[in-house]
UniProtKB/TrEMBL annotation:
Catalyzed reaction equations: adenine + H2O + H(+) = hypoxanthine + NH4(+)
Residues carrying the site annotation Important for catalytic activity: 218
Protein name, per record: Adenine deaminase
GO MF annotation list: adenine deaminase activity; zinc ion binding
GO annotations of cellular component type: cytosol
Cofactor comment: Binds 1 zinc ion per subunit.
């Protein structure tokens, strides 16, 4: 099965570029920028990656991102991920970036996005990996800050396929960003949102109704509402599931309890993704392998998951045809 997974062509649809920041590269860039990291070694830092909930992870994830300062840093970060993507037989990837994590520290939007785009262009050239960029708003920040970020993205309208919503879910419901998402859609962006990871199934309804999303990121807690499951299944709304993330953030207590197989059985359009691979212990292949082992998935399941990933991608129909 491991070999089958390795050879299976995949798309990745839920990957935070800041969450692919491996400790080795973090130390290298910190030294280059003469920034101090409050850990004595790579091992020491990795040992700190023990989380009991989403917020534990977010605190350390934002602290890690503080090291990133130059266009070269964002290039190196993205390039390191693309090498991993290529090794994982990812032919197409749609990556999130969190501009507010950087602009709030005085790092210009332009430098962040241009470093990322340079690397994505090189990934296309060197590896043939196609890619799209999704700009994610931090939901713990204000609507006003999200509007400012949307404005900063306007010169790059053609480089960003969609806007998303991430960070601390509980207490920050989708409707907080309804007006920003309305504006983004008016400008031609597609929309996605993290929902039902830690937050309740009502937030999945909110993402669908108030934000008009094309996909739900995570969506695990949708299973608590049968009407919602029926809607997601009828409309074939893609869910970008991240098994190792769910385990590390204790959304599931044990991989054997992961609802992915149940979701497939209910006819939901599920995909498998790595979320923040540097923090959660694996890239896409490790995520496929972990659920395959724990839930006894067969080759038909895996083939379906991979096919779903391409069908759910923000590619034009003629582009998708190359992969299906
Ligand atoms: N959930 C919410 N915010 C995030 C995540 C996530 O899985 N990863 C990075 N930011
Ligand atoms: Zn995520």
């Amino acid at each position: 099965m491991e070999q089958f997974i390795k050879n299976l062509p995949k798309a990745e649809l839920h990957l935070h570029i800041e969450g692919s920041f491996e400790p080795e590269l973090m130390f290298k860039i910190a030294e280059r920028n003469q920034v101090k990291i409050p850990f004595s070694s790579v091992e020491d830092l990795r040992n700190a990656y023990q989380f009991s909930k989403l917020q534990d992870f977010l605190d350390i994830y934002y602290a890690g991102a503080n090291v990133l300062q130059t266009r070269q840093d964002f290039y190196d970060l993205t390039w390191a991920y693309l090498q991993k993507a290529h090794e994982n037989k990812i032919l197409h990837t749609e990556i999130f970036f969190d501009p507010q994590t950087h602009t709030s520290r005085g790092v210009p939007f332009q430098l962040v996005i241009e470093g990322i785009i340079d690397a994505l262009n090189n990934g296309r050239k060197e590896f043939g990996v196609s890619s799209k960029l999704i700009m994610s708003f931090l939901r713990h920040l204000s609507e006003e800050s999200a509007f400012e970020t949307l404005n900063e993205a306007l010169p790059y309208r053609d480089k960003i396929v969609a806007v998303g919503l991430d960070s601390s879910e509980k207490g920050n419901p989708p409707e907080k960003f309804e007006r920003v998402f309305d504006k983004a859609r008016e400008l031609g962006f597609l929309t996605v949102a993290h929902a039902g990871e830690e937050g309740p199934s009502e937030y999945v309804w909110g993402a669908l109704h108030d934000l008009n999303v094309s996909r739900i990121d995570h969506g695990n807690r949708s299973l608590e509402d049968n009407d919602l499951v029926a809607l997601l299944s009828d409309e074939q709304v893609p869910l970008t599931i991240c098994p190792l993330s769910n385990l590390k953030l204790q959304v599931v207590k044990d991989m054997g309890e992961h609802p992915l197989k149940l979701m497939l059985d209910k006819g939901l359009k599920v995909t498998v993704n790595s979320d923040d691979p540097a923090y959660f212990g694996g890239y896409v292949n490790e995520n496929y392998l972990a659920v395959t082992k724990a839930l006894q998935l067969n080759k038909d399941h895996l083939y379906r998951l991979a096919r779903n990933s391409f069908e759910s991608a923000f590619l034009l129909p003629e582009e998708k045809q190359r992969y299906l």
